[in-house]
């Protein structure tokens, strides 16, 4: 049986028709409507990294980014046909993996993981199977394992074992999360899948490795999980208020329930980023009037919590957080967005760092957030 896969963002678009430390957070519910509001002016730009762009590596704005101390790896969420590599100053270092026909190409690309030696592992789902491939720095592709578990995202554990996430796609995923050994043999399972209706499997980013902590989020759930010592624990829960997923969503046919839910609006966790000083929860909010983000910042030393609102239609300067490093929040944006979204006095200071080029290009911003006393 052949199954089509949709990214959660694309799935939403189609149906809408253009529409603290972990211990302190444990079992704590964050009420979105009650959080103190932060302003864009409370974020100050510390560093600007323009990404070298040519006709060979043009991308959109919704980009999956992973990085280490030497390299950024980017995959366009809408096309998912190539992983681009950039050095930490933004210089383009070529494609790591590409979808296509023939030797050296993949048939499909769903997710990727960066090994400590700089090699890349990718998840590729075809039909009712998923395959994890290894791609060496020289570009050589080898198969690590194949599995009948229809995974849409994955990550690799320090032990060499893997976590695979399969969403709500019965009967292929009896559990939404499984752990396998290095050969793909299932070792344990989590998050029993009790959803009985038809639901197109999501292809989204579910795993977020933050320093020593590995977090998991999933569509239509308000929980942030942490995976540690072969156990999955909730470390935070969002109360989305009027935008919480309604009970009828789980009971009715997806074609009916999703349409109704889109008319009233709903919220989804979209990302979890953390370092020793700061935690950031990225929340996608679908409203009748458009698509918004609520970025929830948590100062781990004081438990101070603030949220910053962005709007996909007209205010996307800080719409795409990609990580936290050394207490600095990193965002992916575009030169054109900076020209529209930054005050003139700031633009005058940074104009030389973002010169006009043949193509509009992505820019990584490293920022500091100022928490009010």
What structural class do the secondary elements suggest? mainly beta
CATH homologous superfamily descriptor? TolB, C-terminal domain
**Shape, please?**
globular
**Share in β-strands:** 35-45%
The CATH topology: Neuraminidase
CATH structural architecture: 6 Propeller
Separation, N- and C-terminal Cα atoms: 57 Å
Mean pLDDT: 89
- In DSSP terms (H or I, runs of 4 or more residues), the helix count works out at 5
Radius of gyration: 20 Å
| Major sheet attributes | 5 strands, mixed
How would you portray this structure in words?
The protein is mainly beta. It has one domain (6-369): Neuraminidase, CATH 2.120.10.30. It contains five helices and 28 strands. It has helices spanning 8-16, 22-25, 254-264, 335-341, 344-350, and strands spanning 6-7, 29-31, 36-37, 43-50, 63-67, 71-76, 82-87, 92-98, 111-114, 120-126, 129-135, 141-147, 153-156, 162-165, 175-180, 186-192, 202-203, 207-210, 213-216, 223-228, 231-239, 266-274, 278-287, 290-299, 304-311, 321-325, 328-334, 362-369. The strands form seven sheets. A five-stranded mixed beta sheet has the order 2-21-20-19-18. The model is unreliable at 1-24 (pLDDT under 50).
């Amino acid at each position: 049986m052949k199954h089509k896969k949709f990214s959660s963002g694309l799935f939403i678009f189609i149906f809408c028709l253009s529409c603290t430390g972990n211990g302190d957070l444990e079992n704590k519910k964050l009420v979105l409507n009650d959080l103190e509001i932060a302003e864009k002016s409370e974020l100050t730009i510390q560093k600007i990294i323009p990404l070298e762009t040519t006709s060979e590596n043009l991308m959109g704005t919704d980009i999956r980014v992973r990085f280490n101390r030497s390299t950024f790896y980017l995959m366009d969420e809408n096309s998912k046909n190539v992983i681009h590599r950039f050095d930490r100053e933004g210089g383009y270092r070529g494609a790591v993996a590409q979808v296509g026909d023939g030797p050296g190409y993949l048939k499909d690309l769903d997710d990727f993981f960066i090994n400590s030696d700089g090699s890349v592992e990718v998840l590729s789902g075809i039909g009712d199977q998923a395959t994890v491939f290894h791609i060496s720095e020289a570009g050589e592709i080898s198969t690590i394992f194949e599995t009948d578990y229809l995974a849409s995202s994955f990550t690799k554990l320090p032990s060499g074992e893997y976590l695979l996430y399969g969403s709500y796609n019965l009967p292929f995923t009896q559990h939404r999360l499984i752990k396998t050994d290095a050969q793909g043999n299932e070792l344990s399972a989590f998050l029993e899948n009790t959803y009985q209706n038809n639901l197109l499997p999501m292809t989204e980013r579910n795993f977020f490795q933050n320093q020593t902590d590995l977090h998991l989020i999933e569509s239509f759930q308000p929980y942030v999980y942490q995976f540690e010592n072969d156990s999955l624990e909730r470390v935070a829960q969002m109360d989305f208020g009027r935008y919480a997923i309604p009970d009828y969503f789980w009971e009715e046919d997806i074609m009916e329930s999703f349409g109704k839910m889109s008319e009233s609006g709903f919220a989804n966790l979209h990302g979890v980023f953390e370092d020793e000083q700061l935690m950031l929860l990225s929340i996608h909010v679908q409203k009748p009037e458009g698509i918004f983000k609520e970025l929830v910042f948590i100062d781990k030393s004081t438990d101070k919590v603030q949220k910053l609102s962005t709007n996909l239609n007209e205010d996307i300067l800080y719409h795409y957080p990609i990580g936290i490093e050394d207490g600095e929040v990193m965002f992916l944006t575009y030169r054109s967005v900076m020209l529209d979204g930054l005050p003139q006095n700031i633009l005058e200071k940074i104009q030389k760092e973002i010169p006009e080029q043949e193509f509009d290009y992505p820019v990584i911003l490293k920022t500091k957030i100022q928490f009010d006393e």
